[in-house]
Amino acid sequence: MSGDFPVSAFPVWAPNATTVSLVAEGSERPLVAQPGGWWALPDGESPASDQEAVDYGYLVDGAGPYPDPRSLRQPDGVHALSRTWSPDDFAWSDSAWPGRSLTGAVIYELHIGTFTPEGTLDAAIERLPHLSALGVEAVELLPVNAFNGTHGWGYDGVLWYAVHEPYGGPDAYQRFVDACHSRGLAVIQDVVYNHLGPSGNYLPVYGPYLSEAAAGPWGDAVNLDGAQSDEVRRYILDNALFWLRDMHVDGLRLDAVHALHDSRALPLLEELSAEVSQLADETGRPATLIAESDLNDPKLIRPRAEHGFGLDAQWDDDVHHALHVNLTGETTGYYADFEGLDSLAKVFEHGWFHDGTWSSFRERHHGRPLDAGTAFTRLVAFSQDHDQIGNRATGDRLTATLDPGGLAVAAANTLLGPFTPMLFMGEEWGATTPWQFFTSHPEPELGEATARGRIAEFARMGWDPELVPDPQDPATFERSRLDWRELEHPEHAKLLALYRDLIALRSTVDAAEPATDVVADAASGLFTFRRGGLLVVAGFGSGHRELRVTESEFCVAFGSIGFEGGTLMLNGTGVAVLR
């Protein structure tokens, strides 16, 4: 319905309001009720202004003014007036960019606020040569939507169309996407449609955007299937199309879709998949939808014609858990089921570990098998990511636990495995900076409640609450910034070279090639598999192993590895890639 009104009419959906007025340029103008609960300026009226941009908000039944739910810019924060902005004003230079399907691509996940010392989109542009040289093919940005405060993870966004102003706002976002495309890098945007943040969420003032009947772990859920939910769903669908069409993004990572409460016969995710497919047909550029889900449900990536949702890929936490447990020995909480190399072999052969099996953490059976013939590139795998690092008590990376050989084993299994691989920023050089949970809630009571919630969350995982840093302490945020000076040290440069070599080797194998000849030898700690013409030999834990090979077969070796007289010898953790 919003598309039926010109932008100059300042349309807004407020179905239960008695009066709605536009506040702009120091004056107040009543809006006129329109069909479907919409309000807009009368035909021919618009705020008189000599400025290119207009700051505006809405009075709803005399209260406010509140920012526009579809605001494209919030220069003074989420509690202030919105500012008009048009995505069409940018001079794109990516007309030759063909786009690409992102299943099978090497993805690099980063957080704008901590990727560089400056913490801005423009500063991130300056680091794109590093990513190009590394060989990654897509950059995945953690949420950039507007939230209250200066810094945070981004999952507490409240205005989904606006780019967080401290990152540079929407103009900088367009510059970043354009710069990525000029280097052949696709862009994936992490979006959050399952909940809103606790500060600056004025959507309930306008209409029934939320549902108390479907409360989740982050508060009231979004109203996807209740009364007046058609426009709520349209709000989400239009937002997805905004990123893909107007901001030229190549794909969306859909946060925690298992937390979407949707009982409709046509689920939102299926509807989204259909509209994104239509957009891709119209633009001639692929558009990829990747879901985060812990359900291990193949319905998400099953084609719509086969009664699935038709998404392109979903995250596979089971690969991470199997790698993490076998490299670190950690078996608390949800890691308990993944002890032993057999768990790693299972995910390499079947995609998921929990495919209808008993989950001791959940105390029930979990998941179901992938549909026959499903390419494992439909599963995004990683040894580290923002959740699996940041949701640890101290936000410690694998570098805090593993030696270089162990880091190499994690890298080789992720990058040369049969999945779509994803790296977390700094992983490629073994960054030692933690990535902790940080917030900057201006409201003290909200900051205190967040800290208490984190401690309670960690209690179930068996972690010492005394180790949990205060999310509101600015030092927690500062500790989480990448230290690019580490690249000057030989040990970091050596690991970076390995990552580059592994990514180059991956490009020699068809992305859809499955893993074959998967062998997990628990006695020796040796894990091997083949993909295409490559043989990956990984040693987990201490111990001496020997394997008969010829020296000419070597592609890459890293860790406690030697070669004598036709025998490959691994002492401790390490990996070799052979042809």
Characterise this structure.
By secondary structure, the protein is an alpha/beta fold. Helices cover 26% and strands 23% of the residues. Strands 9-10-13-16-17-18-21-22 form an 8-stranded parallel barrel, surrounded by 4 helices. Strands 23, 24, 25, 26, 27 and 28 form a 6-stranded antiparallel sheet that branches. Strands 2, 3, 6, 7 and 8 form a 5-stranded antiparallel sheet that branches. The longest helix is centred in the middle third of the chain and has 18 residues. The model has no long low-confidence stretch (mean pLDDT 93).
Spatial order of strands in the largest sheet: 9-10-13-16-17-18-21-22
What is the rounded Rg?
25 Å
Oligomeric grouping of the chains: single chain
Number of helices: 14
Helix content: 25-40%
Overall shape = elongated
* Low-confidence parts: none
Main sheet, how many strands, which sense, barrel?
8 strands, parallel, barrel
Question: Residue-averaged pLDDT, rounded?
Answer: 93
Structural class: alpha/beta
Strands, total number: 28
Distance between the termini: 58 Å
Residue share in β-strands: 15-25%
InterPro entries: GH, GH13_cat_dom, Ig-like_fold, Ig_E-set, Trehalose_TreZ, Trehalose_TreZ_E-set_sf
Subcellular location: Cytoplasm
Keywords: Carbohydrate metabolism, Cytoplasm, Glycosidase, Hydrolase
Main location: cytoplasm
